[in-house]
């Protein structure tokens, strides 16, 4: 997404009511939005809806969006999940018993599986159904 193709996303943010923001995009289609507005307190609740709207606007304008992040919320969340996966794997080894992580969405579970896939001492498995689906880290 080039700078010129920011215009549809910029217009979307303006229609929502944001005035002070910055949009950056990389070559992979990931958009990072920094919103400097007191109106946005909780990016976690706002992000999925904005991402859906941004994808619809992009599609209408023949643009591609791989993902949207607001105020680095998603980037920080990914970092925390990876750290949780590593710490939980260490705990499973020390305590010699499986460790179950809290329920996560499919993308977050995938982050855990990918992070721990190269470890020869543990394996991961998704367990549960629906909103309670989570990752179990077990010894090999």
SS strand fraction: 15-25%
CATH architecture of the largest domain: 2-Layer Sandwich
Which structural class best describes the helix and strand composition?
A: alpha+beta
Shape: elongated
Tally the helices: what do you get? 4
Distance between the termini: 44 Å
Radius of gyration: 18 Å
Major sheet: 3 strands, mixed
> Poorly predicted ranges (pLDDT <50, ≥5 residues)?
none
Q: Class of the largest domain in CATH?
A: Alpha Beta
Description:
This protein is an alpha+beta fold and 140 residues long. Helices cover 44% and strands 21% of the residues. It has 4 helices and 6 strands. The chain has helices at 7-16, 43-60, 73-95, 106-116, and strands at residues 21-25, 30-35, 67-70, 99-100, 122-127, 134-139. The strands form 2 sheets. The protein has a 3-stranded mixed sheet with strand order 1-2-3. The chain has a 3-stranded antiparallel sheet with strand order 4-6-5. A hairpin with a 4-residue loop joins strand 1 (21-25) and strand 2 (30-35). Helix 3 (73-95) packs across helix 4 (106-116). The model has no long low-confidence stretch (mean pLDDT 89).
């Amino acid at each position: 997404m080039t700078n010129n193709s920011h215009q549809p996303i910029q217009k979307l943010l303006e229609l929502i009511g944001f005035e002070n923001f910055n949009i950056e995009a990389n070559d992979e289609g990931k958009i990072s939005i920094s919103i400097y507005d007191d109106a946005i307190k909780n990016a976690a609740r706002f992000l999925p809806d904005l991402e859906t709207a941004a994808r619809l606007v992009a599609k209408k304008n023949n643009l591609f969006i791989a993902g949207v992040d607001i105020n680095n919320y998603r980037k920080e969340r990914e970092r925390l999940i990876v750290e949780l996966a590593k710490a939980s794997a260490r705990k499973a080894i020390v305590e010699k018993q499986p460790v179950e992580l809290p329920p996560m969405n499919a993308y977050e579970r995938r982050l855990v599986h990918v992070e721990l896939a190269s470890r020869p001492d543990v394996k991961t498995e998704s367990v549960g159904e629906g909103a309670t689906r989570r990752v179990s880290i077990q010894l090999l």
